[in-house]
Structures are given as structure tokens and as C-alpha cells.
TrEMBL record, chain A:
InterPro entries: Electron_transfer_protein (IPR052049), NrfD-like (IPR005614)
Cellular component GO terms, alphabetical: plasma membrane
The keyword Hydrolase is assigned to this record: no
Protein name: Molybdopterin-containing oxidoreductase family membrane subunit
Keywords annotated in UniProt: Cell membrane, Membrane, Transmembrane, Transmembrane helix
Family: Belongs to the NrfD family.
Transmembrane segments: 43-69, 81-99, 119-142, 188-209, 221-243, 255-275, 295-316, 323-344, 375-396
Location relative to the cell: Cell membrane
Membrane topology category: Multi-pass membrane protein
Organism of this sequence: Desulfosoma caldarium
TrEMBL record, chain B:
Alphabetical list of Pfam families matching this protein: Fer4_11
Family matches, as InterPro entries: 4Fe4S_Fe-S-bd, 4Fe4S_Fe_S_CS, ET_IronSulfur_Cluster-Binding
Full protein name: Phenylacetyl-CoA:acceptor oxidoreductase PadC subunit
Top-level taxon in the UniProt lineage: Bacteria
Alphabetically ordered keywords of this record: 4Fe-4S, Iron, Iron-sulfur, Metal-binding
Record-annotated 4Fe-4S ferredoxin-type domain positions: 31-50, 108-137
Molecular functions (GO terms): 4 iron, 4 sulfur cluster binding; metal ion binding
4Fe-4S recorded as keyword: yes
Length: 411, 250
């Protein structure tokens, strides 16, 4: 990334942190009081963002699997960037979901009194497993370069790199071979862990029997496809920006195109079956998505900007890496609309007829519009993720190392 | 006259039932509520009785009364459906709680451990009856200006009601500030704290139409046991298999 563009993005991230800190202060002092959701729509923007980030991590996850489990050479170049991306995205995810807890200081309860019948407990377990695996994977992928950088007289902060390399001072072919085997082993572990993690997140919603839109075997599948689509699009975009590998970008673009088609097909199925079955609550929720207050997020953001335009680009400009990258960026940027339209409509339909006409209070309504505080907190978390990512891309050997030592497969 | 009016108030009978139940082995008691829709007048006294008893803040409600209009003009009627927590015998809410903060106690009452709940609201989403609400830390006196006089200002108003500790689950919850139950999931608990003191739930005693009945359904002498034999009995959403311990009479 060019220096000016880099500085611009760092500036943006810092600005985001400053602006968003107002929301964070409100959140930390007043708990969940400054949010707009209530008891009938108990999850809001932050859960939508959680799901967005969940999806974004999946594409990077897949790349690391292709690179180190199936040993596909062409993905090796992307390996460390992907592992690092998964790590950052997971961190953003956990911040979003922790902030969403009414009593976040009790998060240790997951360890003390876990309920293994709850899918949320499994999400916690699998999330931590992913975090540990990806932290280790990133470490072993970049260790060679960390050692090389710690000895490079022209490089500032050599002590820091030595610390990160855990004091290791030499790195030879034996180390490389061993680290590669470790990365391979970790990738083997992360394959079932990751699949379970992404599947569990879909099942988390699908098992709720009173939620007609979610309570379907299609949900976990839709989740996996959505994750691969948005995550794949992110990786294609990052490949273009950081690695400038045109061939890789265009082939990733083709994969994204297929995912997009499958996703739209599944979504169309959901609407078709819902309207045909004509179950009152399902139709109400679908109507909310298509014709409710937020119709524009569905038609304009998701279907227009996030599907139709990228589809055209990916079909007719498939050999132009720049166009493909921007099509992918559009998908990523508009995917929040998909997540929002997944979380809110099912919650926003009263589960008992007549409940809305009794005991009025803003927290007992199904109408939900995220408020400024929720947006500010979101801006803060995203800016934090962006800043860590950018600093890492500059100060850690996660993109292109300078070929002095390190793992050649990662270059 | 003696043939048409009951010889004693049902509250007196239920009070006797309660005394008997409290002497039984707690393991064998199954607390049950029966609500007679034919008698409910939709006065909302139970809702407010509950709010006052449990010092519920704004936006938290345990027992709203749902009003329905049935039929077509001119043959229109109104029907009322008080909706406490159903204390499901197969509760979907407890299964999803990641930290075992909500569970059915020995008498089948589904409770929330306020000191354990992390406030994830998964149980709110899982409950098919929307019976749970989250405490967002609201205050009735939030926008009230604090007048200089201590007698008239917000602080004084709050102290007379809002800052009064609630006694849910037999504990004195501290004055509302930032501690639990703020941030927790909250719901009807059949007034366990009153039961243990030999009192019927607040909604039962405040019901102006004597439409809400309470007792141990395992006790063949109890009023609720008899009511459950009625052909008018139904439960909400039976198709979900939640097996509510709150029954309705049509
Ligand atoms: S009514 Fe809802 S909160 Fe009450 S026990 Fe059943 S599922 Fe749980
Ligand atoms: S809100 Fe509390 S009681 Fe409900 S599922 Fe979460 S931790 Fe359990």
C-alpha cells in the first residue's frame, strides 16, 4: 500500500476512534441504557455487526485452509495476510458481542458455570479455539521474518521483533520445516473447528422454534454461504490492495461470483417457500424485509449495490482485477444490510397477537432504529480493527516480507 | 341467594391451599396458576400489583394483560389475556442460557439468578411467549427536573418509590444504581418471596375479578387441582410442547 494511502487510512481510523469514543464512554458508564433496542427486539446493530465480522473471517479462514491443508501453492502468498485478517476480525467480533452484554463484567461466567446445552456456550468455546489457533498460526507463519527483522541493522524496533519472536535469534531451514509442519497441523485442527464455529453460529438461530424465519435447516447453510461470500469478497479486495496479484484477484472474483449466485438462490428460496407456505408470522417477517421501514436496505443496498452491480461487474469485467476488487468491496460494504435484515425482522414480529396494544414503553416495541450511540460504538470498534490491521500490515511481516529469511512459502 | 354466591372468597380457599402446600415436602409441590378468561375484566390491576410488588422499572413488565377484540360489528366483544411467565415444564429459555443463570427450581418455577446472568438476552429471544424483559436501567423519574427542595425534587420522589429495594427471590436488591438486576433478564417468578412468607402472588391477591388462581396442582384438595379438571382448560401455543404451568379457562 502506498504511503499516502496508508496515512489516509490510519488517519481515518484514528478519527473513527476519536469520534466513536463518545459512544464508548456512554456505553461504559450507562451500560445498555443508551441503546435503542428493547425487550421485544433484544438484539440490534451490534449483533448484526458481529455477524458481519463473523462472515468476513470465514473467507480468510478458507484461504488458510486451501493454502495449508490442501497445500494449494497459489494461496500461499495470501496465507499470512489471511491468518492475520482472521485474527483481527475475531477480535472485532468479540468486542462487539461483549459490548452487547447487559453485564459484561460477568463474561467469566462462561468458564465458571457453563451450560453445554446452550449453543452460545459452544460459540464461546469454538470462538476461543479459533482465536488461539489463529494467533499461533500467525505467529508460526511470521516467526522466520520476525527473527530476520530483529537482526536487520536498518530496521527500527529490533528489540520488539526479538520479543515477538520470543527471543529466538537464528532461523534456519530446520526451523522453517518445523514451523511449516506446525502451521499445517494447526490448519488441520482449524478445519473442523472453523466449520463447527461457522455452522454453530447458524444453528444458534436455527434452533429457536418460535422464530419462523430462523427456525429452518436452511439457516446454517445460508450462514455458511453468506460467510464464504462476504469473507471471500474481502480477501479478493485485500489481495488487490496489498498483494497486487492480478491472477489471484480474478480467480477469487470468479469464486465470489459463484457464491453470490448460490446465496441469491438460497435467499430467493427462502422468500418463495415463505410466501407459498403462507404462515402468518413468516409472511409478516418477510414483508418487513421487503416492504417494511427498511425496504431500502434490502432493495437498494443488498440487491442493488451489493448484488446486482457486483454481479454485472463480475460477469462482464471478470478479467479486470481493479473492477473485480471494487465489485468485492461493494459486496463487503453492503453486507451489513444482509445481516441487519437477518437479525431484526424475525424479532420485530410480535410473538403474541395483541401484545403491542398493551403496556406501552419504547423498550416494549418492535420498531427498532439503531441510535447514534450504537453507531458511534460501532465506528469505534471498526476503527480499532482497521488501525490494528494497518499497523500490523506496516510493522509486522504479515504481507510481503522483504525476502530476508522467513518462510518462503508465505512469500 | 346462598345457592348462587360462593360461601367463601376463593382467596380464603387459596390461602388455605397455600398453607397446606408449604407444609408438604417441597419436592412434591408443583406451583400452578389458572387464569379464567371468562372472569377477567381487563382492569390491569394484576399488572400494576406486580409492578408495585417487584418495584419494576419502566420497560420491564412481568404480567401484561393482552386485549383482543373478537367478532364483527355489531357483535363485537373484548377478551383479555393476562400473560405472566408460563413457567414451562419444558422451557426453551433455560436451555439456551449459556451460564445456567436461569433454571426451573424444585417446584417447577423458572427463576433467574440475577447475580449470574450476563445479560446476553438469548432467553428473551427463545421465549415463545415474550415473557421476559431486559432491565435497561430505566428510571421513572429520569427526565424529572431535580428541584432545589428535597421534598419535591427527583431524589425525594425516587427515594419514595424507585430507590426502594425490591425483595425478589427473597433478597433485598440494592437501590437502583448500576448493580443487578440492571442489565439482567427479568420475568415473573410466581412471587416466590411472598410464597415463602405464606402469601399468595401479588397478581392473585390484586385481581379484582378473582380470575387468577394459584396453588399446588399435586394436591388433590387444592382449588387449582379441581379447576384443571374443567373442559374449559387450555394452554397457550400447545403445539410448541413447552407444557406451561399456567393454564387458562376459556
Ligand atoms: S414462558 Fe418463556 S420465560 Fe417463562 S418458562 Fe416459558 S419459555 Fe421460559
Ligand atoms: S440473559 Fe441472562 S438468563 Fe437470559 S440467557 Fe443470557 S445469561 Fe441466561
Amino acid at each position: 500500500m502506498q504511503r499516502t494511502r496508508f496515512s489516509l487510512f490510519v488517519g481515518l481510523a484514528v478519527l473513527g476512534l476519536i469520534v466513536g469514543s463518545w459512544g464508548m464512554v456512554q456505553r461504559l458508564i450507562h451500560g445498555l441504557n443508551p441503546v435503542a433496542f428493547g425487550s421485544y427486539v433484544p438484539w440490534g446493530l451490534w449483533v448484526a455487526f458481529y455477524l458481519l465480522f463473523l462472515g468476513l473471517s470465514a473467507g480468510a479462514f478458507l484461504v488458510t485452509i486451501l493454502a495449508y491443508v490442501f497445500d494449494m501453492e497459489r494461496f500461499h502468498r495470501l496465507g499470512r495476510l489471511s491468518a492475520y485478517t482472521v485474527l483481527i476480525v475475531l477480535v472485532c467480533e468479540v468486542i462487539f458481542i461483549t459490548l452487547d452484554l447487559g453485564r459484561m463484567s460477568r463474561i467469566y461466567r462462561f468458564l465458571v458455570t457453563p451450560n453445554f446445552n446452550s449453543l452460545m456456550t459452544w460459540m464461546f468455546v469454538l470462538f476461543n479455539a479459533m482465536l488461539i489457533v489463529y494467533a499461533l498460526k500467525t505467529f508460526f507463519l511470521i516467526r522466520g521474518d520476525l527473527v530476520a527483522w530483529s537482526k536487520d541493522p536498518q530496521r527500527k524496533g529490533r528489540g520488539f521483533y526479538r520479543l515477538l519472536a520470543l527471543g529466538k535469534s537464528s532461523y534456519g531451514p530446520d526451523d522453517y520445516g518445523r514451523d511449516y509442519r506446525i502451521v499445517h497441523g494447526l490448519s488441520l485442527i482449524s478445519l473442523p473447528v472453523g466449520l463447527l464455529f461457522y455452522g454453530t453460529n447458524g444453528a444458534f438461530f436455527a434452533i429457536l422454534m418460535n422464530r419462523p424465519l430462523w427456525n429452518s435447516a436452511l439457516t446454517p447453510l445460508l450462514f455458511i454461504v453468506a460467510a464464504v461470500l462476504s469473507g471471500g469478497a474481502l480477501i479478493a479486495f485485500l489481495t488487490h490492495v496489498f498483494l497486487k496479484d492480478d491472477e489471484l484477484v480474478t480467480s477469487l472474483g470468479r469464486a465470489v461470483l459463484y457464491c453470490l449466485l448460490v446465496f441469491l438462490f438460497l435467499e430467493a428460496l427462502q422468500f418463495f417457500v415463505g410466501y407459498q407456505a403462507n404462515v402468518l408470522s413468516v409472511v409478516a417477517a418477510l414483508n418487513l424485509i421487503a416492504f417494511g421501514d427498511y425496504w431500502w436496505t434490502f432493495w437498494i443496498f443488498h440487491l442493488g449495490l451489493g448484488s446486482f452491480i457486483p454481479l454485472l461487474i463480475l460477469l462482464f469485467q471478470k478479467d479486470s482485477p481493479g473492477a473485480v476488487a471494487w465489485a468485492c468491496a461493494l459486496i463487503v460494504l453492503t453486507f451489513l444490510a444482509v445481516r441487519f435484515n437477518f437479525v431484526i425482522p424475525d424479532l420485530a414480529v410480535y410473538k403474541l397477537e395483541g401484545l403491542e396494544h398493551t403496556f406501552y414503553h419504547p423498550r416494549l416495541r418492535t420498531h427498532y432504529t439503531p441510535n447514534v450511540n450504537e453507531w458511534l460504538v460501532s465506528v469505534w470498534v471498526i476503527s480499532l480493527g482497521l488501525l490494528i490491521f494497518l499497523l500490523g500490515s506496516r510493522w509486522l511481516p504479515v504481507i510481503n516480507s522483504d525476502q530476508r529469511g522467513g518462510m518462503k512459502h508465505a512469500h | 341467594m346462598g345457592t348462587t354466591l360462593p360461601s367463601e372468597d376463593v382467596l380464603v380457599r387459596m390461602q388455605r391451599d397455600l398453607k397446606r402446600a408449604l407444609q408438604r415436602d417441597p419436592k412434591h409441590v408443583r406451583w400452578t396458576m389458572v387464569i379464567d378468561q371468562g372472569k377477567c375484566t381487563g382492569c390491569h390491576a394484576c399488572t400494576l400489583g406486580c409492578v408495585a410488588e417487584n418495584k419494576l422499572p419502566p420497560g420491564v413488565v412481568y404480567r401484561p394483560v393482552i386485549e383482543e377484540e373478537v367478532g364483527r360489528y355489531p357483535a363485537v366483544r373484548r377478551r383479555f389475556l393476562p400473560r405472566p411467565c408460563m413457567h414451562c415444564q419444558n422451557p426453551p429459555c433455560t436451555k439456551v442460557c449459556p451460564v445456567t443463570a436461569t433454571y426451573a427450581n424444585a417446584q417447577g418455577v423458572v427463576v433467574v439468578d440475577y447475580n449470574r446472568c450476563i445479560g446476553c438476552r438469548y432467553c428473551l429471544v427463545a421465549c415463545p411467549y415474550s415473557a421476559r424483559t431486559s432491565d435497561f436501567g430505566e428510571w421513572y423519574t429520569k427526565e424529572t427536573p431535580d428541584a432545589p427542595s428535597v421534598l419535591l425534587g427527583r431524589t425525594a420522589a425516587a427515594q419514595s418509590y424507585e430507590a426502594h429495594p425490591s425483595t425478589e427471590y427473597g433478597r433485598r436488591w440494592p437501590q437502583r444504581g448500576t448493580g443487578s438486576p440492571i442489565g439482567n433478564a427479568r420475568k415473573c417468578h410466581f412471587c416466590l418471596h411472598r410464597l415463602s412468607a405464606g402469601m399468595l402472588p401479588a397478581c392473585v391477591t390484586t385481581c379484582t375479578a378473582r380470575a387468577t388462581f394459584f396453588g399446588d396442582r399435586n394436591d388433590p384438595e387444592s382449588l387449582v387441582y379441581h379447576l384443571l379438571g374443567s373442559p374449559r382448560v387450555f394452554v397457550l401455543k400447545p403445539e410448541l410442547g413447552t407444557h406451561p404451568a399456567v393454564y387458562y379457562l376459556k
